[in-house]
Amino acid sequence: MGEVAIVGAGQTAFTRSCGMSIRELCFEAFKEAMEGLDITTEKIDASIVCSAPEYDKQRSPAGLISEYLGLTPKPSFYVETVCSSSTTGLRVAWSLIQAGLHKVVAVIGFQKMSELSSRDAAERMGRGGDIIWESPFGLTMPAGYALYAQAHMARYGTTEEQMAKVRVKNSHYGAANPKANYRKELALDEILNSEVITSPLKKFDCCANADGASCIIVAAGDVAKGISKIPIWIIGLGAATDTMSMAGRKSLTGLSCAQEAAKQAYKMAGIKPQDIDVAEVHDCFTISEILAYEDLGFAKPGEGVGLIEEKQTYADGKIPVNVDGGLLSKGHPIGATGGSQIRTIVRQLRRQATEAQVKEAEIGLVHNIGGIGQYGNVTILRR
Amino acid sequence: MGFENFGTVTFTSEAKTADFINYLGAGKVMATRCKKCGTTYFPPRLDCPACISSDVEWFEVKGKGKLASYTKVNYGPSGFEADAPYTLALGEFDGVQILARLSRDIGEKDIKVGMSLTVSPVKLSNNRLAYEFRQAEKER
Which of A7, A41, A322, B137 makes the best surface tag, with the fewest CB within 10 Å? Predict the structure, then answer.
């Protein structure tokens, strides 16, 4: 098998209302991804466009984005696994390159959520489940994660205060991230006293809807070395699914799709959880980050809270997690999120992070989850 | 009849499992079981992927289950504004797990993971039908 590298990674600022069209959003992310690369647009052999449908009116966005970025007549197509769409796109890009079909592929993720009211957006997310059997009860994305939170609390004694400490950390790093939507440091009390959205999750336990785009340029090894000063190598890929319905879940104290994807990625990379220097995990809710600690093997089941209590997931801890502020600070423009997580790890491994640089980071991990744990992607990158 | 009057909002009505609604009208919450391999299904389905077979039968979900988890939803999505707050829950029954709301008759202080539940049909406004969890009678 040949080697495949990320040569460029960009994103727009994530905002509550971007004042742009989706094509313009994607162009901004593309522009940053192409910065400093010794290639022109003609050298991009294919593009993969990733988002969740029904937030804007455009049907078949791949054609639109490929035209606006000047990528026609090269092949372009759409990939979707809701919130994990863009790391699914990355997986497809990797395989297209490994197959020898293409040398350079662009993965573009976007979402413009501000065209909908937040209740309408919540309704769309609710339909990202089983629409015959569960959406009619009013199941929402936060409610699904709240079921995991309550089950984790009942089984392991996890507390609301421990969950809130995840937000304290992420708000600390988010405050320094110019691309983040929420840039205020939050105190424990403010988080605990915020209104309850869906018990036990409160306003500040939840990430916010956002507009944004991300772009990752992926290249075959031989080409990568020629066009980028510091190519970042893709050394592990894992992907898995779980039931669409909540009723089908075998466990409510961890995401089985993440556990399975992590196992695959560690095996492919030939490394263990202890070898990870810095990680980006899908903290759509505070509980999600605690579940991720356990599902990725950074802590044993039920012991994830220990990492946040001991501040081991801060930048100078044993395993720094979401030191760019995470989804909780950046906001979560669904299709753009995975690409933004990848961008953060690429910058960490290139030692170019402006928020909080983890010292001598060599190996990084991205954990990107779709829906309420319906899809899980784990990607491991090396400098 | 299909699922057009099921739950608060129907998103699609036609399915082979529409008999579920007839049973629900008759007071029964049903699940399905593959006649070949015996696997039980909730949400009910009339196709068994393990056997690639559609030789599947209905059975009633009876008796007591256990509350696996719950959440009180204070913010309803579009179409559910008037329902909020409502409490969603997962209940484990013999062989199947079910997502439904908790009956409003259960006092908030009585809600505990592990508590004993039953599942029953419930009439909503506008003649819509659903099922909900009720607190099981205390054992003597």
Answer: B137
- Cβ contact (<8 Å) for B78 and A132? no
Same domain, A163 and A227: no
pTM of the model: 0.97
**Are A196 and A226 members of one domain?**
no
- Assess whether A49 and A92 both reside in one domain: yes
Q: Considering A50, A83, A206, A284, which one is annotated as catalytic? A: A83
Round to whole Å and give the CA distance between B23 and B121: 9
Out of A117, A133, A139, name the one closest to residue B88 (CB).
A139
Whether A83 is a known active-site residue: answer yes
User: Which two three-digit tokens encode residue B12?
Assistant: 């699609």
Asked if A136 and B9 come within 8 Å (Cβ–Cβ), the reply is: yes
Tell me the residue range of the domain where A222 lies. 4-116+210-232
Residues A50 and A161 in one domain: no
Tell if the CB–CB gap between A138 and B73 is shorter than 8 Å.
yes
ipTM of the complex: 0.97
A134 touches chain B (CB under 8 A): yes
A90-123: pLDDT as tens digits: 999 999 999 999 999 999 999 999 999 999 999 9
Q: Which residues of chain B make contact with A244, given a CB cutoff of 8 A?
A: none
* A79 and A125 in a common domain: no
Sign of the dihedral through C-alpha A316, A317, A319, A324 = negative
Q: Is A282 among the catalytic positions?
A: no
Domain regions of chain B by residue span: 16-135
Residue B59, classified by CB atoms within 10 Å of its CB into exposed (0-12), middle (13-18) or buried (19+), is middle
Q: How confident is the model over B87-111, as pLDDT tens digits?
A: 999 999 988 999 999 999 999 999 9
Q: Report how many helices (DSSP H) and strands (DSSP E) chain B contains, helices first.
A: 1, 8
Residues B12-18, mean pLDDT to the nearest whole number: 95
pLDDT > 90 in chain A, percent: 98
Q: Which residues of B fall within a CB distance of 8 Å from A150?
A: 69-71, 113
Residue A20 to residue A214: CA distance in whole angstroms? 15
Residues of A in contact with B12 (CB under 8 A): 131-132
